[in-house]
Design goal:
Layout: H1 12-19, E1 25-29, H2 36-49, E2 54-58, H3 59-62, H4 74-93, E3 97-101, H5 107-117, E4 122-127, H6 131-137, H7 142-147, E5 169-171, H8 178-194
Parallel strand pairs: 1-3, 1-4, 2-3, 4-5
Helix pairs in contact: 2-8, 4-5
């Protein structure tokens, strides 16, 4: 069966002007327990309160629906990242700011996400919290189970995590509180919006 791409009558720049924001994806990567989801949802709350349209694509939440058929093999992880990147791209085209939060342990998979979303819209954020801090938190009990040998291929214990080489931002929630981290994330998002020439910024609710 032949699949044909149908071009619509509204482009992403028109949607961006309608929402008065520049669509982008903040791709939060880091170990389990590093604080990715906490930061993502806190940033979403901050941006929504300022009048911006945004949405969190959380790795765990996506696995309850879109990726519920996938496991945690390298191939399944790559497919999960591909799916999330495709959704983020479509949300960006709809004019939304996207905040993704998932381990995404390999540079190749994150580069795939960058190419799908588009280098101009993709901003890699390394939640650089030390393994010892993540393991001490262990909010889901995963590290304890991994140490006991019940979770094979667990990132940081029996599988590698490849840290970003040139992230747009690096945050250590073991050394910084949530609010200062969200402040820095917000500045990253808004700097992209402020630098856009094709987005009107007349909304006084955002000043």
């Amino acid at each position: 069966m032949q699949v044909v791409w149908h071009r619509g009558q509204v482009d992403k720049n028109e949607r961006a002007r309608l929402l008065a924001q520049r669509p982008s994806t903040m791709w939060l990567t880091g170990l389990s327990g590093a604080g990715k989801s906490t930061l993502a949802f806190a940033l979403e709350r901050r941006l929504i309160s300022r009048g911006y349209s945004c949405f969190v694509l959380d790795g765990d939440n996506v696995r309850h629906g879109l990726s519920r058929d996938l496991g945690f093999s390298p191939a399944d992880r790559a497919e999960n990242i591909r799916r999330i990147a495709e959704v983020a791209r479509m949300m960006n085209q709809a004019g939304l700011i996207v905040i993704s939060a998932l381990i995404s342990p390999t540079r190749d998979d994150r580069e795939m996400a960058r190419q799908i979303i588009g280098p101009d819209a993709f901003h890699e954020v390394y939640v650089n919290t030390a393994l010892q801090v993540c393991e001490r938190r262990d909010p889901k009990g995963l590290y304890r189970r991994a140490r006991a040998g019940h979770i094979p291929g667990f990132t940081g214990i029996t599988a590698p995590y490849e840290m970003p080489l040139q992230p747009a931002l690096a945050l250590d929630t073991g050394l910084m509180g949530i609010e200062p981290c969200v402040d820095m994330l917000e500045r990253l998002v808004l700097s992209g919006i402020a630098s856009s020439d094709d987005v009107s910024k007349g909304d006084t609710a955002r000043t």
